[in-house]
Amino acid sequence: MKKRVLISDIAKALGISVTTVSFILNDKAKEKRISDALTKRVLDYVNKVGYKPNQLAKSLRTGQTKILGLLVEDIANPFFSNVAKHIERRAYETGYHIIYCSMDNDEHKAKELIQLFMDRQVDGFIITPSEGLEDTISNIKQNNIPLVLFDRFVPSVETNYVVSDNRRGSYEATKHLLEGGNKRIGLISLYSNQTQMRDRLDGYMEAMDEFRVQSFIKKLNLDSSEAESQEQIREFVVDNKLDAVLFATNYLAVDGLKALKQHKTSLPKMVAFDEHTLFKLHDPSITVVSQDIEQLTRELIHTLIAEISGKLKEVRQLTIPCQLIVRESSISS
Amino acid sequence: MKKRVLISDIAKALGISVTTVSFILNDKAKEKRISDALTKRVLDYVNKVGYKPNQLAKSLRTGQTKILGLLVEDIANPFFSNVAKHIERRAYETGYHIIYCSMDNDEHKAKELIQLFMDRQVDGFIITPSEGLEDTISNIKQNNIPLVLFDRFVPSVETNYVVSDNRRGSYEATKHLLEGGNKRIGLISLYSNQTQMRDRLDGYMEAMDEFRVQSFIKKLNLDSSEAESQEQIREFVVDNKLDAVLFATNYLAVDGLKALKQHKTSLPKMVAFDEHTLFKLHDPSITVVSQDIEQLTRELIHTLIAEISGKLKEVRQLTIPCQLIVRESSISS
DNA sequence: TTTTTTTGCTAAATATATTTAGTAGATTGC
DNA sequence: GCAATCTACTAAATATATTTAGCAAAAAAA
User: Fold this and answer.
1) pLDDT tens-digit series, residues B92-150
2) Is A99 helix (H, G, I), strand (E, B) or coil?
3) Least CB-CB distance to A57: which of B60, B78, B100?
4) Which of A298, A272, A300 has its CA nearest to residue A284?
5) What architecture is domain B166-291+324-330?
């Protein structure tokens, strides 16, 4: 257990002041007119003894923790864990670390966690806001903490966000089903006012209206059990004699598949929102509206870092196109 | 943007010293003989103004960051993202935060990340060690940083670990296939000396030897492309005319399913290690050896917190039983 | 009454950096 | 030749807590 080297040890060893060492280590040698000779001497010595500044002391003084807070709906959902992986990689490349947590659509938990992260003085937030978070989000803004919303946003508060073009994605998916000759097409969604859900509903409606056919909409409770959800999905599909179904999230589609498999109901044509390993392998393979995680996370981190470094002059609100990936489940034989 | 309240503000407002406030806030009022009256007065005031100590200053002074470092193989793998979710929840309950990252079986990246986390002075590590990390793990131990290995361990270094009983899980799975009347049973694994892979091989071997039948073993490279893996799996299964296959990881099984689906090869009987949403829904549904994530993470956090708080008197090495969940894929019709 | 102990609290040191304000000496300007 | 400017640094303040060592007054013991 070797003792940590301090900046004062370096100063003492080289017979110079702590200030000088600090300037050199923070790339202010030129600005502060430290001679090249001394700069080199310090840098060489620092390298030799492998000095690393204490991040805590540094953060305490500068107010920058180089930590970002990532709050997603559920890190165990493959969509979000994929997002988390991309974000993590990009953040590390830029010298930031990520602390994360799942909010599980629990308003109380979310508020507590955001407060906890603020107490920890994260340099910025990435949040997929669940409902009821208007005040909290607004509070973050008021405290001037850099923030980017993700996957959905809060219309009543003007913030940066990066989301997918859910309305268009949903429209294209529905149109695809309509053009396949399906008449009775249902949408399975959630009782949720989150923007992504509203947009997916809107897109579905727009396509249905365009084709002048009746719409069938079933919303499930966020907190209903898997068994309840499955039963409701089955009923909805069977009772309405649906030809095709658009699922508003990947896990709704998974629930749907389970429900229909269990009851040996023959599968209607279907499209799901968001990719899932299952979908490529399922028999039949499942058509999806896929979000461009690569681009979403790139813009996300880019926006957040820009805001942190003060380079962002105005609010940045991006909508990234989705891609309809047609597989077997939506093709009429 | 209201200004932060400092401990000195409180002291000033109440006309007492900073020391006294600090004692009271750190539950040392009794020990330091602060009067009950004053204690209450301070606590009430703190509550009123909503004072929260600056974590950075606190950490700098005490050396405790209340942050744990979680290093997993791949956070996008559903097994690990599930683990991450459980760990996160338990950690927060105990007042700890998690910074995480994926090591992607990249030795260099892993070493860099561990060093980074050490520089950040995490209070403890949770690591699924990839190969070549003996020295780094040993280094963590030498620096007296609390550590629990997970999913696999490093035999050459004596550390805490929590792993599943992979040997037994593999043995049971193989035996189950043997008892189903399958003769030619193959194991698909990885070129890896990690303990969990060795144990899964051992368990397979033990069962095969017990039944006195020839074993078929195929190992894939960690870094081979999906296409390569798939081709090799297909060849292995077809060339050896296998009746059944045991896959040593969930993603190998997924690759296998993709490979066999693409080439319309009829599916042999199969069992996979680790659960995956896909497996319940696949047709046929896939039999798995399931790890008890609930118990694994409970023991994990419990052990780590015990070590951090100095309550752990000796190294703790736990092996948790797996469960064989029999589904359609392994049952002989 | 004097000494000892206890009570209830505080001043100053500490953790480890960054940053502001300033200084001594050398050089330049006029 | 003397003021003004520049060069190359540094002392001290700062960020915000925790912790050690110690002090004055009150109570108890002698």
Assistant:
1) 999 999 999 999 989 999 999 999 999 999 999 999 999 899 999 999 999 999 999 99
2) strand
3) B60
4) A272
5) 3-Layer(aba) Sandwich (3.40)
